[in-house]
Amino acid sequence: MFKQDPVFKALPESTGSLVMAIEGGTIALPDFQRSFVWEPKRTVELLKSIISRYPAGTLLTWEQNDNLTFGYRLFDGVPDSGRQPSRLVLDGQQRLTSIYQALTGTGDHKFFIRLRPFIDWESGTLKSLDEVELDDAIFSHDSRARSRVDPNDPEWQIANATFPVSEYGRLRPWFKKLARNINGEDRDAADELEELFNQFRDAYLQPLESYAFPVVDLPASTPLVAVCNIFETLNRSGKELTPFDLLTAKFYPLDVHMRDLWAEAQARYPLISEFNVDSYSLLQAVSLRARKSAQRADVLNKLTAPDVQKHWEVTVAGMSDALDFLKRQCGAVSSSWLPYGMILVPLAAVFADTINLRSTAKSEVMDKLRRYYWCSVFSENYDQGANSQAGADYRALREWLFTEGGEDLPEAVKNFSLTDSDLLLARSNRKALFRGVMTLLIQSGAKDFSSAQAISNIGDASLEAIRVFPKRFIDPGAPGSDDLRDSELILNRILVDKDTKRAIRDRPLVDFIGEQEYGTQRKFEEVAESHLIETGELSGLLEKDYELFVRERLTLLIDLIESATARSLVYDAS
């Protein structure tokens, strides 16, 4: 088994042949590749590696044929010949663009080689590579910049024994002229020096033409999922390749311009930008409607350009409606308080079908969607296998919402399971549950301390969750469970604005309230009560009894959750 050839072979290709292929348009870039971003000094470093014959990494290309034609663009500086590329570069764009521009003289920066550092002028011989100061020998010049020295001037080049890298293959006449310039009328000495220059060309410039990069060429039959995975593995430090990028390139020749559609969606529906919705999430929602799946393999391999044309617009509108629903009716006032981003995918897909419902039917559907949402959040149903969960939920939601007598309830509604003990001891690092509790409080009317207005009316306002009882104020010697003396419990968190946080500092909330004048004190107590905190005389807050405080708050929160989910919590007898 170990002696068999690998699936993908790396075969050498010379810089000369690669530059010719780039120039002719037979090698191009997929439309999803980022622009050329290398600084000139990185190109200089690459030229030094090539001249030194050091390894400079592997290139990855992807064959194209009549059955697989992706959106593409030519390398920077390449004239459009109208030829369809036979290969697209997945990894190596920056290196190949650098080499192409340096060897052809295109681009804003030109690259030059000083001849003198390569020659021992006393002995009249070439230096060995380890004797050459390549940092002094190769440099770049910005042709747009104003400077006292212009390396593009032929006379300056002769006077300084410096030539453009792009002239590497046409140096014989220049060497002759340079040798005559250095030795004047001494023809024999000039001929010897010219021969030395030619030796320099063979020893040091030949790699500019013959240096071989290992090239892995993926066949056109390579599945899109594999292409995506390979690209991400090779390009960890660069631009991430998403399925949206791949499908953008795939659908471009079919006159479906995904980037234009995405830009129009963001401009037309501001909530999509406000909640930082990912473009791929919209494609997943489209795939749910068209193919009943949000799995990456299905989005890449089964979703078609006609599917996008048919479902895109209504899905975008559905996404905006879903965000508006979550913001207005579920307390998710911003993306930072949304328990799950993935839950937007099935919601957008089903909201697209609610647009034309009559008011009575729509009201019933909204009630069911609220139940589904809160059951999903408090069941933490999207913590694992989110793509599969979205597909299963969408199929169940369609029957439950739009089929008369539909009884195929979504999993979170049908199998809702949350115990009072789990909620009591849940810590704030359970992000979905934590955000679910906070947003449910917002939805139920939790108020802002500064303005005493409902948080839902003033928006995110840089809300922060602080501890009602800071850790140092929880008595470690109090009777009861150690777990109930944990300051990180969700039940010990309350939402406040930044000004209130600064005013409270690292003190118990009750101390902050107690130092206020009577009128303000009463206002703050009412605000605390809107966050399900008891403020009566014997309450855990006023008594500074942490365990009593969290148990009181648990009782109130359970009522709120049961109302939102229309499901009962499981009570732990212990």
Keywords:
574 residues, alpha+beta, 6-stranded mixed β-sheet, 3-stranded antiparallel β-sheet, 13 strands, 49% helix
Explain the overall architecture.
By secondary structure, the protein is α+β, with helices and mostly antiparallel strands. 49% of the residues lie in helices and 9% in strands. It has helices at 15-24, 40-52, 93-104, 134-137, 154-159, 172-183, 187-210, 224-234, 243-251, 258-268, 270-274, 279-291, 296-301, 305-329, 344-351, 359-378, 386-402, 411-414, 420-425, 431-443, 455-458, 498-504, 509-514, 518-530, 540-543, 546-565; strands at 10-14, 27-30, 59-63, 72-73, 87-91, 109-114, 119-120, 125-126, 138-142, 162-164, 212-218, 464-467, 493-496. The strands form four sheets. The protein has a six-stranded mixed sheet with strand order 1-11-3-5-2-4. It has a three-stranded antiparallel sheet with strand order 9-6-10. It has a two-stranded antiparallel sheet with strand order 7-8. The longest helix has 25 residues, at 305-329. It starts with 9 loop residues before the first strand and ends in a 9-residue tail after the last helix. The relative contact order is 0.07. The model has no long low-confidence stretch (mean pLDDT 90).
